[in-house]
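Late entry, evening session. Most of the bench is empty. Finally got around to the prediction I had been postponing all week. Sequence below, unchanged from the version circulated by S.P.
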Amino acid sequence: MNIRFTVVAAALLLAQQVQAQSLSLSQAGALANNTSPASASQPFNALHTQALQAQLNALKGGAETLTRDQLEKAKQSDTQADRAWLQASGYDFQSKANQQAGIALLSAFSSLPDNILQASRDTVTAINRDATAGARHQALADAEGISYLYFLADALGPRLGQAFITAYDKGELGKAAALIKASEISTSAAKKHFNYPRPFLVQGNSIHLVPDDVIVKDNKPYTAGGGSFPSGHTNTGYTDALLLAEMIPERFDALVARGARYGYSRIVLGVHYPLDVMGSRMIAQRNVAHDLNDSRYRALFSEARDQLRSALEKECGVSLAECARTAGKDDPYRDPAMKDFYRFTMTYHLPQQKGAAAKVVVPEGAEVLLETALPQLSAAQRRALMVKSALPAGYALSGVSTDQAFWQRLDLSAVFAQAKASPAR
């Protein structure tokens, strides 16, 4: 009996490991390319063009041309974001405490063995080298749009994405725009703490810095300052995408995939390692769950969500469910393969470490991340799915604590897909 159990357990573990590495680097690159301006879908490309033009208009702020000085000062306008509403609430985002919690969560980085650090360097070199022109253009747009929410339109589908851009620029999403951006917890303290050099600064590197032919269009190579670990842009992308997914659960899977795709853009540019974006996914998930379990934050979230949903329905002219409906090949973030892309970005095929604990322990309240997406499930059922769909043990940054292991191994895309495939009776 024990021998049989061991064989079955080993087979299940092997199956999980195969699933965790189901995409090659080239296959992941092809999916990234399909969610870029090089997509084969004309409606998707039209949506991307509309989002990029709206972003450029916002960056210029009424000026005839865009300068690099304007990029440095760019932020949402008072029309786009209702900061007065948020400020009047007096809500304390506890930024310093959350920054320290993030450092603790990522502490396993400091003891990673050389083979994992080298694999991370090799992977950024390969992704940066082999990226298509479309992926590079997308990466530049993602990089310079960090202060805005335009990048999220791509994951909403052609119809809802267009409505989102229109409502955003009219100021109809003001509360959501203010709350989402204010919820981003800076990674600056963590960058100083870990003090890890960026890929293009390492001696002997072969990183190709991408010239800007998309935003300012001066062909100046894109670079970034400060430490590499963790990625601030990726933290922004995951936080924004996950919070919007909580507000528009009809597009939950597509939006969490957009967060992963945003992190991939940082590797395309050669300014971050896989480890940097993996770590930022962990802290973004943890921070959003922390906020949503705070009753005062939840009240603000509900008010912002209700305004957003009402405005989008108005712009769509139909129910939000209808407007958010999958658009087939014109909706690449709804491609079933994006679930595999998400899984890929959880590890980037970095080596597993032996001796890691296999048990997944769900922190109290973590199931809140799936509350709006899976309302048919109880909290216990959501927690069970988090355990069932978790990444295999031992991948980089899973550390020794239960919290580190959970947030590294949590696969929101897989949880959502499993719940939809096997709905609760």
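Two things to note before I forget:
The two ends are 32 Å apart (CA to CA).
Residues 339 and 413 are 6 Å apart (CA to CA).
Will write this up properly tomorrow.
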